[in-house]
Amino acid sequence: MKFEKIIATFLATIMTAVTFSSAVLAATMLSSYPTFLGSAGALDFYVVFGAGAKAEDVAGAVDIMARLAELSYTQKTATGSASAVTGTEKTNVPLTGADASGYYLSDTFGATMRNFHYSGLKTSTINYKGNTYDYHEAAALGSLYVSHDFTTTGINGTNAMVVKTNTFKYQYVFDKALNLTDLATSAKTTGTIAAPEYSNPIKVSLMGKDFLIVGIGSSQVKMLVGSSGTATASTSVDYVSGNTTYKFYATQGSTTGGASSTGWSTVVVKDQNGNIVESFNVDNGNTKDTTKTSPILTVKLNSIRALQDGTIGGADLVIGPQSSGTEKTYSTSCDVSGTGSSDMKFPGETEWCIQVGSGKFASSGVAAVGDTIEVVYRPTTTKYIKSTDASPKLSLPNNYGDIGFADPVWYPNTFQTLTFTPVSGRSGYYWTSIGTTNSTSAASNLNGIEIASDVAGSIVDPNTATGYSKAYILFNTTTGTVEGTAAGNLTNPVMIGFWDSVNSRIGLNITGSNGCAAGTLACTYYEVLNSSTDVIAGGLTQWFAFNFTISYSNGAATADKQYLYVNVSYAEVGLPSGGSGGSVIKQMWLGTSTNSNGVVLNFYNKTAWTSTASAPEFRLYTSDSAEGKDVQEDNTNTANTVAVADVGTTAQDVVTDTGVIIKTPSANAAGNVVQIKVPAQVLYARMYFGKLGASTTSTTYNAYAAISNAVAKLDSEVTSTEQAKNLVSVGGPCANSVSAKALGVAQTFPECVAGIATGSALIKVVDDVYTTGKVVVVVAGYGAADTRTAATVLQQYDTWLKDKTKSSVTVTGLTSAGIV
Amino acid sequence: MAKVKLKVTKTRIMLLVTLAAIVALIYLLNMYWPKPITTWNYNGNMLTFRDDLREAQKVKVSPDDATISNVFASIAVRNITIVYTESQDMGYITVEAGELTYKLLTAYLEAGFSRYNKTMSFIPMGFIEISSGMVDSYENLRGTADNPLIALVPPSAADETSVKLKDHVIYVEGKTLKDFDLATIKLLMIVMDIKV
């Protein structure tokens, strides 16, 4: 009896401990506030006040309620959008073309881009001595082309834009003749290469960068390069170097004197904060180098500006880096290797240089109609800009425009992914109607290849035009009947299955076999191979072939369909390495109606196919690791020659001539899997000239949902309806009966302030006060101001409560260190 | 089987007719007598109010519904502050403040006055911020076009039941607690363009 008492006491103690510890462990933590007050986007609480609440309670309660509105939401999806192109966008850039190297972009875009293709290229006028002169900007695409050549390093089977040096050009074209020599001065002796016109140069803007043409002739143009303008004592000509702006002022000078006796000016250099960096005198027509700027700059004084009263109004300055000079003579050929005065690079660029159009600016001192200044892309090596690059574009200098792949890069951008996987030990069931099987097993212990699409209905049985999500090429040992005259021969059954997605079974049609008439439906899905020679008559046959149609969601137009050709041979029943030299799957090609072998999948049987003991098991080519010949594709190289490429060990996606994309071959092939992205329609690249805006992806977000109930309640209004939810009780027990109930104290003073010290407030989550699983959050201050402080904590819960892994906290103040 | 004689007297007939008439009258009264409306379908959201919208509709408004509505519909509005004085009715003020806070929030978000960006995470309040604060007196209150005030005048301080606008301050007054509810509802009806 005594022993039983001990046991009973022990058990009771355990039960009590478990009860209390569970309660402690299950206590709702302040760190999870306010998530426990909402449920799946709906409010699950009331905010309760005492009828005798204090003024501070009102403000605190409004703050709390306003913040808790975030618990009322519905989840929505914002549909993504393709990036918008400013300029010209083409969605029909083919993967291959009949051009010498690949597909020339000029065949799609046209040879030259102008203002009507992209508004960033100007067609406008310049003003020279009161007259306007037409000009236009253009971009000549030259021989830019796209290629997915697998053998070219830099392309590697991706879709890439190939940019050879001296191919892509920006052009500034004079559309109205401007005779600089005739117009510049009354003497009409300047404006040539030998006698530049510094006082009245032609100001042109090449891709937004100002240049001053001072001399023309002999297919050359002499221009001043750098920052230019008229400086005065209060107006500067600015030169920007990195984060520093140097401001050049012309503070005084004369129209006489100086080295040439034509004048001079004092130039004052200041930084962007107005601090004087240095000052010096420059003679008219001469240059002077700074000494204290970084980099050292050359200042050229082109003209003194005198006012009518003879006082100096300012000076025309050109400022450029000392290293490259401020005056250049450009001819019909440039490169990017020159330095100093031979540096023909476009300012700020390393691969773009300035030249004159071939045969242009022939007349001395005259810019004739059609005369062209060019900025040419002259990289030292051919550039390959892949569609998969982070920034798949070639940009003009000065952010003037781009040519490249849009986002998304493909048109259409709708794909299904076919996954080819070796399978074993599968069972097949009889069809009862098209697409539906019963539970009667037709064959079991089947090995073979599974072809799965991530788009339902895309693998189409061409005989019934029914689309499936999966298809199978399956091999057996004993299923099937030897027919005809070949009894006693070894027999090897092979069959085609489709996935009954309703019943999750592989459906088989094994009603036909040897002896059926070739080409009839009966032997379309099933054959027993039993001959080493290609003989149909007499019931012996060596071959079994099936052609699947790959049609996106079974809705693709004829031209957009792909076909999976499968051919099985009895002759290779042995191991591929066993002397027969092949595989029972002789051919497995994914191609189009015009190019059947776009992708070759080399699934080889790794075990022998015996008619009585085992069905063959498969892997890619001859090992379980990635090999080049695991997957092959037809590939047009940059010499426009089609060749078979072994891509099995390639890491990145490979684009094929037939417009499908082999996904990460090496990673997949190592697992004997092949994944191929098949477009819904014939695949084109989406490319643009101009500017590309940002694209957006689909995102889910919480959208505010209206709060339908009257959430605010007086404590006297709290009934069983309110008690069934969580309650946020604002105000201490003295003024709020719900707070008193939750804290277990009376509403009479001084009992009602027990546990709440003077000058402090309590925030406490009390579980199961009225309803199991629901809480009361008490916000109770000793005084009303304390309650207000506590309310602030709840309003800014993500700041003050995020690390409070306890159910209550006492608040006396808020500091940068947290709650005190 | 014995026959039962049913004696139909004139009195009994009169009684039956009277009873039928009473039943019909009760039915018709139930059918057509206006019932309190405490819920309203607001752009697909079923909102519950604390009292009858029909009664609230009768609350006096000055100068008129349209003028008060324009205060809230102005694109200048950035903040709305609910103000009140210390009184013995703070609990009721809190309840009305809660009603105003959530229903004004709903009204503004439904009207598209939201700074919420679809690609950003949830921002609890809309572009219009709603806050509250105590004032010493209801005298000389002045709101602004971008920050109008709602002054909650509870029974202990109210002389009438009304919704009034003066100097960008909307005074919500109720002589009784029920009237206080009704005046608050009236203001919400104006803002949300609820007509019963």
SSE blueprint and pairings:
The complex is a heterodimer of chains A (820) and B (196).
Chain A: H1 2-26, E1 38-39, E2 42-43, E3 45-49, H2 55-68, E4 73-78, E5 85-93, E6 103-104, H3 106-109, E7 112-113, E8 123-128, E9 131-140, E10 145-147, E11 160-163, E12 169-174, E13 178-179, H4 180-184, E14 202-206, E15 209-217, E16 220-225, E17 227-231, E18 237-241, E19 244-254, E20 264-270, E21 276-283, E22 287-289, E23 297-306, E24 312-321, E25 327-330, E26 352-356, E27 366-367, E28 372-377, E29 383-386, E30 393-395, E31 402-411, E32 415-433, E33 436-453, E34 459-461, E35 466-468, E36 470-475, E37 492-500, E38 505-508, E39 526-529, E40 543-550, E41 562-569, E42 585-591, E43 599-601, E44 603-605, E45 618-620, E46 631-636, E47 642-646, E48 654-655, E49 661-662, H5 665-669, E50 674-679, E51 684-692, E52 699-704, E53 712-714, H6 720-723, E54 726-730, H7 737-743, E55 761-767, E56 775-781, H8 784-795, H9 797-800, E57 808-811, E58 814-815, E59 818-819
Parallel strand pairs in A: 3-53, 3-54, 32-38, 54-56
Antiparallel strand pairs in A: 1-2, 4-52, 5-51, 6-10, 7-9, 8-9, 9-12, 10-11, 11-29, 12-28, 13-27, 14-15, 15-16, 16-25, 17-24, 18-19, 19-20, 20-21, 22-23, 23-24, 26-28, 30-31, 31-51, 32-33, 32-50, 33-36, 34-35, 34-40, 36-37, 37-38, 37-39, 40-41, 41-42, 42-43, 43-46, 44-45, 46-47, 48-49, 49-50, 55-56, ...
Chain B: H1 10-32, E1 39-42, E2 45-48, H2 53-57, E3 60-62, H3 65-73, E4 79-84, H4 90-110, E5 129-134, E6 149-153, E7 162-166, E8 169-173, H5 177-191
Parallel strand pairs in B: 3-7, 4-5, 4-6, 6-8
Antiparallel strand pairs in B: 1-2, 7-8
Helix pairs in contact in B: 4-5
